[in-house]
Write a structure and sequence with these properties.
Radius of gyration: 21 Å
Structural class: alpha+beta
Distance between the termini: 53 Å
Number of strands: 21
Strand content: 25-35%
Largest sheet: 9 strands, antiparallel
Number of helices: 11
Helix content: 25-40%
Strand order of the largest sheet: 9-5-6-7-21-20-19-13-17
């Protein structure tokens, strides 16, 4: 057994580092935190105890949006260089220390109030952001009422929000700061969520708890109740696990791709050609001329090369900008990963900081493909 060799499971590392298991898989696929061992039969990942510190450092660096290649430089470079880079964030770290003190005071007040049943404590701003990130994937019409809702699941040290209208799917996981009671899940009506988001942004800590036919949010002495849809939510995990194997994987800078799509026509084509080694997704355009390996985006009249790391098969794939752009807008951190199985199958967009966001986007067939 791996444990007898001094190795720890991905779940133990997740709890020890404050990262989710999905975020750790993202960093494995990015080459930033590769497991010490992967079981050839089960696929389970195992890590050394020494990797806990590296995982924790990655979490802290990602919280301030340091790119993946820069994190690798900080963790593997010389001490003076690492210290110089980290010193730039001292002010932010001081602010976080003040926030931690305030959080501790809030939790002490919660403990002093006695048992409140099943509940989680997390950043109100983080919850507001998570709601906004999955909201676009929820159904607008109410032909199937539950699809006009957001599934909220409390499990272990995470809160997961999921929405789907059968054509799009987004699932966002955030790390909670405290949890009491058992796991729970409910579906919140999106019409109740929208007005609550602005209120959440004005709060600090928030307590989220199920209560009868509502999700109760408590912060700074005030409460908000979000109505629940009492219907079973689709098994989105079965959808994700049933996706075809990935043939092509792309890692690129989120902001560059976003800016390009915002100025593109209705349909764009991605031309993906495998790169060798690690391609810096934050390199300048002058460093990567057209028609090289990597990612080239065209809209019928213009072609633009974006620095990207591409592994797997070469492929051309087209997207409706209106479908793809919302998923890119909501990505976490500066890096975006696309997992592609085929030009006519859903593409998985993945991103992560201390939590993770997964979105499915369906390609399209347009004149650009012919």
């Amino acid at each position: 057994m791996a444990e007898s060799d001094g190795l720890i499971t991905i779940g133990v590392l997740a709890r020890a580092s404050g990262l989710t298991a999905s975020a750790l898989r993202f960093y494995d696929d990015s080459g930033l935190l590769v497991p010490a061992r992967v079981d050839p039969l089960t696929g389970y990942r195992y890590y050394t105890a020494a990797q806990r510190e590296r995982a924790a450092l990655i979490r802290r660096l990602r919280a301030i949006e340091v790119p993946l290649d820069s994190i690798s430089d900080i963790l593997s470079g010389d001490t003076e260089r690492a210290e110089r880079l980290l010193d730039e964030h001292v002010g932010e770290l001081a602010r976080r220390a003040q926030e931690a003190a305030r959080v501790a005071e809030t939790i002490k007040q919660t403990l002093g109030a006695g048992s409140m049943g099943d509940r989680v404590v997390l950043s109100a701003a983080l919850l507001a952001e998570a709601f906004e990130q999955v909201l676009a994937a929820a159904a607008i019409n109410r032909e199937i009422p539950v699809l006009a809702g957001i599934l909220v699941e409390a499990n272990a040290n995470t809160l997961t929000l999921t929405a789907t209208d059968r054509y799009r799917l987004s699932t966002r996981t955030v790390v909670t700061r405290d949890r009491r009671g058992d796991d729970w899940a409910l579906v919140v009506d999106t019409s109740e969520v929208t007005p609550v988001i602005a209120w959440l942004r004005r709060q600090g800590e928030i307590i989220a708890a199920p209560s009868g036919q509502a999700l109760v949010l408590t912060g700074d002495g005030a409460e908000r109740h979000c109505r629940v849809i009492d219907e079973p939510f689709p098994d989105y995990r079965a959808v994700l696990s049933g996706l075809a194997p990935v043939r092509t994987r792309v890692l690129t800078a989120q902001d560059r791709l976003r800016d390009l799509l915002e100025n593109s026509s209705c349909t764009v084509r991605f031309e993906l050609r495998p790169t060798t080694g690690f391609a810096d997704p934050f390199a300048t355009d002058a460093d990567a001329p057209l028609d090289q390996t990597g990612l080239t985006v065209s809209d019928g009249s213009h072609r633009h090369h974006l620095p990207a790391s591409v592994t797997g098969d070469a492929i051309d794939i087209s997207f409706d900008v209106a479908t793809l752009l919302p998923a890119i807008h909501t990505a976490l951190g500066p890096d975006l990963m696309l997992d592609i199985a085929a030009a006519d199958l859903p593409v998985v967009l993945r991103s992560a900081t201390d939590g993770d966001l997964t979105t499915l986007a369906m390609p399209t067939r347009q004149p650009l493909d012919r």
